[in-house]
Design brief:
137 residues; two-stranded parallel ribbon; 5 helices
Length: 137
C-alpha cells in the first residue's frame, strides 16, 4: 500500500515537472517563432549617403580610396553586428521581391555609421541645384 502511494506521488511529481517544462518550452518556442527571421537594408542609400558625405567634406583624388576602404570595412562590421542583434538574416532591399512587409534596418545602420540619410538627401539636392545653376557646390 505504501509503495502504491509512493508510486502515485512520484508519477504525479514527474507529471507536474513535465507539464511545467512543456509550458516553458512552449513560451520559448513562441518567442523564437515570433522573431522576424528576415529583415532588409537599403545598402544603395547608405553607400550613396557616404559618397555624398565625402563630396561635402571636399575629399578628392588620393584621399577617396582610403576613405572608401575604411567605410567598406566598417560597413561589413556593422552589418554583422546588426544581423547578430536582430537575430535575423539581412537582405538587400532592392533584391527582395515579396509582398511581405519585412523589418527595415536601413536607418539604424546609417545611424551606426554616423550618416543621416535625410541630411545627405538634402545635401544632394543642394549640390544638384548648384550644378544646374552653374555655381560650385
Amino acid at each position: 500500500m505504501k509503495s502504491t502511494v509512493l508510486l502515485f506521488l512520484i508519477a504525479g511529481t514527474v507529471g507536474a515537472v513535465l507539464g511545467l517544462g512543456t509550458l516553458k518550452a512552449k513560451d520559448q518556442i513562441s518567442e523564437i517563432l515570433d522573431r522576424p527571421r528576415f529583415a532588409v537594408v537599403n545598402l544603395n542609400s547608405v553607400v550613396k549617403a557616404n559618397e555624398i558625405q565625402i563630396l561635402v567634406e571636399g575629399k578628392s583624388g588620393d584621399a577617396i580610396l582610403p576613405e572608401a576602404e575604411r567605410f567598406a570595412k566598417r560597413l561589413k562590421e556593422e552589418l554583422a553586428a546588426l544581423e547578430k542583434d536582430c537575430e535575423c538574416v539581412l537582405l538587400v532591399s532592392s533584391a527582395v521581391i515579396s509582398a511581405a512587409k519585412l523589418p527595415d534596418y536601413t536607418d539604424h545602420l546609417a545611424n551606426k555609421l554616423g550618416l543621416s540619410l535625410e541630411k545627405q538627401s538634402n545635401q544632394l539636392r543642394r549640390i544638384g541645384s548648384s550644378l544646374h545653376s552653374g555655381a560650385k557646390p
